[in-house]
Amino acid sequence: MAIAKTKPKRAKGFSPETAAEMFRRLAKARPDPKTELDYKDPYTLVVAVALSAQATDVSVNKATKGLFKAANTPAKMVALGEEGVAEHIRTIGLWRGKAKNIVALSKIILEKHGGVTPRTREELVALPGVGHKTASVVLNEAYGEATIAVDTHVFRVSNRTGLAPETTPEKVETKLLRVVPEKYKKGAHHWLILHGRYTCLARKPGCLECVIRDLCEYEAKTGE
User: Fold this and answer.
1) Nearest C-alpha neighbor of 18 from the set 217, 190, 215, 219
2) What is the CATH T-level fold of the domain 16-34+148-209, as seen in this structure?
3) How far apart are CA 3 and CA 1, in angstroms?
């Protein structure tokens, strides 16, 4: 889903103290945040995240259940081929291009990385269909790095609450990396996604159930 530009609510965003309290509460509500995409290792995570562009995690998980049963390594994916991959992912958006990219990135992992999924941002974004956001997810989830990937949920929550209001995902990411306390950075991406997916909904945020309601600067809170 494309992330539309939005006018920031304020110039500075949350103070480090307010941000720390926000993530303390989100962490208490969800102590072990993680991606909802199904994967077994860094390679299957790369594939799943690449497939998730303009698709829901639920739809991707349905598609990868059969795909990973047929091919869960770069070598098996290359052997399966574009048509074979396509047969498993026809239910998700942009499946033709994604099938091509999955096979292409698998070939590169085999030929340039000895079949091992790379663990640097530079090497990851060089893979077909893997952009900055996808690389951030893989570095965070698979390799434990304190990266923050800004998807539509993170973008919305950051702007709506006043945590890190900015006009583009890149600017939101920069502000989040500056304001989120170090101890919460690794989980920040997941906490914001899950909060946006289940509480701070796009059309009707669940303000009454929100654990950060009093910190949030959203003026049109529901239930008031």
Assistant:
1) 215
2) Endonuclease Iii, domain 2 (1.10.1670)
3) 6
Query: Does the annotation count 133 as an active-site position?
Result: yes
pLDDT at 6: 47
Residue 7 confidence (pLDDT): 45
Cβ-based burial of 49 (10 A; exposed 0-12, middle 13-18, buried ≥19): buried
Catalytic site residue 28?
A: no
Per-residue confidence at 220, pLDDT binned at 50, 70, 90? confident
Active-site pick, 7, 41, 69, 133: 133
Region 99-112: what's the mean pLDDT? 98
- Given the candidates 2.40.50.140, 1.10.340.30, 3.90.550.10, 3.40.50.300, the CATH classification of the domain at 42-141 is 1.10.340.30
Q: How far is CA 199 from the centre of its chain?
A: 17
Catalytic residue among 151, 171, 185, 221: 151
